[in-house]
Design a protein that fits this description.
By secondary structure, this protein is α/β, with parallel strands linked by helices. It has 23 helices and 8 strands. Helix content is 51%, strand content 7%.
Length: 392
């Protein structure tokens, strides 16, 4: 399409500027600026496409400050495909946009699993030595000094996707997920380092061709036919949307096999056949919905269903507003990311300040940097399944 952004007119005019998205847009909530809202950004896209608006720094800043939480899509009565519009606009403006150096380096490293693993170990060693402040990246206290080795089953019925960052920084979450599968008698194979990154962050950054290359590699390297279980909301959303990214029959079939681990477990008869849990005093946990689990996958209620026998789930009063992590958003827009997180922290405080559970590594890391104790739901379930009681 021979226009500056390559967007179809009917896609842009689908937005009727009703404003129902505004309460669900984190960047609008912290700025009260229309250019930082979904309908405002779409208005700018229209202006650029029609030629009435030049591609200025203000336009680029508006596009770059979107967290891509997709809260607007859930709220939109017109079913505007905002996520697709913002990704393609970022791709079209890639030469005009200036990605943060940290983001550029991070995206480069994610495609090189061996380098990611080595760099992560070095970072963990430096922090353990006390040379690096814990405020820099608290999550590094969890990084193992050696790569995790996963068990492989002889006759797998599912593939467990390990990805990149979680495999390097949070393999204990993977271990908890695999522990639950083993308890239920579910045979599995693990994707491992040879598969690596799903390309989600590259696609969000507007590096669509790189994301497509990575998606093609992932599809080729994973066993055909088996269901694919994912314990990272962002990765799961990306894998489920390979069909849109690649627009091939092979990708369509692949995406149809992808499940968030919570939605898979809650529908597996072996989970339903577990004996009733006998925890008399249930600990309270605050459930924080990752945006890509709630707004993209629509699988957030599965987390609550799995947790319910073990803990008392406390809901936040912000209707699933983004925490500000946004994949790599916190690297490229640190100030706005912090402002959005502050809104989430206020919600957590109002909910009683209990332990927070979140099914996405980006959200976990982002919230932990503010001192909040965060666990993955799978960790909580694994612990209580095997101990049968909460700690006093």
């Amino acid at each position: 399409m021979n226009t500056p952004l390559g967007l179809a007119k009917d896609e842009l005019t689908a937005c009727v500027s009703c404003g129902l998205c505004l309460p669900h847009c984190p960047t609008y909530q912290v700025t009260q600026d229309e250019s930082r809202s979904p309908r405002g950004r779409i208005s700018l896209m229209r202006g650029v496409e029609s030629g009435s608006l030049a591609i200025t720094k203000e336009v680029i800043d508006s596009i770059d400050t979107c967290v891509q939480c997709m809260g607007c899509e859930t709220a939109c009565p017109s079913s505007v495909q905002y996520g697709s519009l913002i990704e393609r606009t970022r791709e079209a403006l890639i030469t005009e946009r200036k990605l943060n150096l940290r983001l550029k380096v991070g995206l480069w490293v994610l495609l090189r699993m061996r380098l990611l693993m080595i760099g992560s170990r070095l970072l963990a060693l430096i922090q353990r030595s006390g040379l690096l402040s814990n405020k820099f990246l608290p999550i590094t206290s969890r990084i193992p000094l050696r790569s995790e080795k996963y068990k492989e089953c002889v006759d797998p019925e599912v593939v467990f996707f390990t990805g990149c960052v979680m495999d390097a920084w949070l393999p204990k979450i993977h271990k908890s997920g695999l522990s639950i599968l083993e308890t239920l008698g579910i045979q599995y194979t693990v994707s491992g380092n040879t598969v690596g990154c799903c390309g989600a962050l590259h696609n969000h950054a507007g590096l669509r061709s790189i994301a497509q290359e990575q998606a093609t590699k992932v599809i080729a390297k994973l066993p055909p036919g088996l269901p694919i279980l994912v314990d990272s909301a962002g990765c799961g959303a990306a894998l489920k949307e390979y069909n849109k990214l690649l627009e091939t029959e092979e990708a369509e079939k692949f995406s149809s096999r992808v499940y968030d681990i919570h939605e898979w477990l809650v529908n597996d008869p072996r989970w339903k056949e577990l004996p009733p849990n006998k925890i008399e005093k249930k600990e309270k946990v605050i459930v924080q919905d990752p945006c890509h689990l709630r707004h993209v996958q629509g699988a957030h209620n599965s987390v609550r269903e799995l947790l319910d026998p073990f803990v008392e789930c406390v809901e936040l009063d912000d209707e699933g507003l983004c925490c500000g992590a946004g994949g790599a958003f916190s690297l490229n827009q640190p100030e706005m990311s912090t402002e959005i997180r502050d809104l989430k922290l206020q919600s957590i405080k109002r909910a009683g300040g209990h332990i927070v559970v979140s099914a996405n590594p980006g959200c976990m890391i982002h919230l932990e940097t503010s001192g909040v104790e965060v666990l993955h739901p799978i960790q909580v379930i694994d612990k209580l399944m095997h101990r049968g009681e909460t700690d006093d």
